[in-house]
Amino acid sequence: MNNLFNKFNALTVLIIGDVMMDTYLWGKVERISPEAPVPIVSVHKKENRLGGAANVALNIQALGAKPIICSVIGDDTEGTEFLNLLKKQTLSQEGIIIESNRPTTVKTRIIGHNQQIVRVDSETDKQIINESFNSLMETIRKIISEQHIDAIIFEDYDKGVISEELIWEIVTLANQKNIITVVDPKKRNFLYYQNVTLFKPNLKELKDGLKQDIDPRNPHEIESAVAILQAKLNAKVLMVTLSELGVFISSENEQKLIPAHIRDIADVSGAGDTVIATTALCLAAGLDVFKTAALANLAGGLVCEQVGVVPISFELLLKEAESSII
Fold first, then answer.
1. Which of 123, 177, 250, 323 could covalently link to 105 via disulfide, CB atoms 3.0 to 4.6 Å apart?
2. In sequence order, what are the residues at sequence separation of 6 or more whose Cβ sits closer than 8 angstroms to the Cβ of residue 86?
3. Could you give the residue numbers annotated as active site?
4. Burial of 195 (0-12, 13-18, 19+ CB in 10 A)
């Protein structure tokens, strides 16, 4: 396992998608408001963290590889703070495009006694303007032509950065250069991700994307739905995350259900970011798809034990991987 993790140090991963800032208000709840039947949170700490595609980058960085984020933010106070957070984490800003009159996505979570009470989202889901799209595409092409990229992650949160045209152009370019492409999809662009290396929906996204109900405890329904989607997308590998039921993997030659590890779940926020980051690095390092899924599943479970969106711990994942059957 050490040999695999050491290979991560030589890898560079391009992350394309929707970035955001995760803001946390930590406090205590000691009484109910006299104005409405809601708790009053007495805040004692405020914290800003990188979220969305930027959290994927943090996971890539935590595992020892080099991430490059390509995204669009707003020309606002939150955008400035987002750039400051990138700088603090020594993450490159070369792929960040600033669009005037567009709000930077911020998700504010109010936490009382280590439990999320409410989340407030400040954002837009409108597509980026043509000028931003052209700048983003030019930046991505430049990075791919000037640097050795081992994998590309599409981190799609349906916030307007990724479009059908962007997907087609980048996947075509990646396939020409034999660059691995992995996708963490959402509903809007779900069926546009043609000819990618690995496509990773969760169960809800699979149901929404195919517009059909699927019983995850019925293996025939999962297999059937995955076969339909794999044919539609012409994806080499489909990896469906099933929460406590584990991960279902379908490659070109084999299918397998990998059970989940038993965890004390504190917060599932950000687990998908960790799974897709680990998946991309394992595939780029040459690990087979089933061992990749097992390790990514392990990593996703580990971050669920933490409150809030946090990247994976390299040391903890290595320790758990060495003591498991992976």
1. 123
2. 50, 54, 69, 92, 93, 96
3. 273
4. middle
CATH no. of 2-19+53-98+125-323: 3.40.1190.20
Tell me the domain boundaries of the chain.
2-19+53-98+125-323
The residue whose two tokens read 């809007």 is 188
Structure token digits, residue 65? 């590889």
323, amino acid identity:
S
Q: What is the pLDDT of residues 195-240, one digit of tens each?
A: 999 999 999 999 999 999 999 888 899 999 999 999 999 999 999 9
What CA dihedral angle connects 11, 2, 307 and 48, to 10 degrees?
Answer: -30
Single out the residue of 13, 11, 35 nearest to residue 181, CA to CA.
Answer: 13
Does pLDDT of 325 surpass 60? no
Which residue, 123, 197, 122, is CA-closest to 154?
Answer: 197
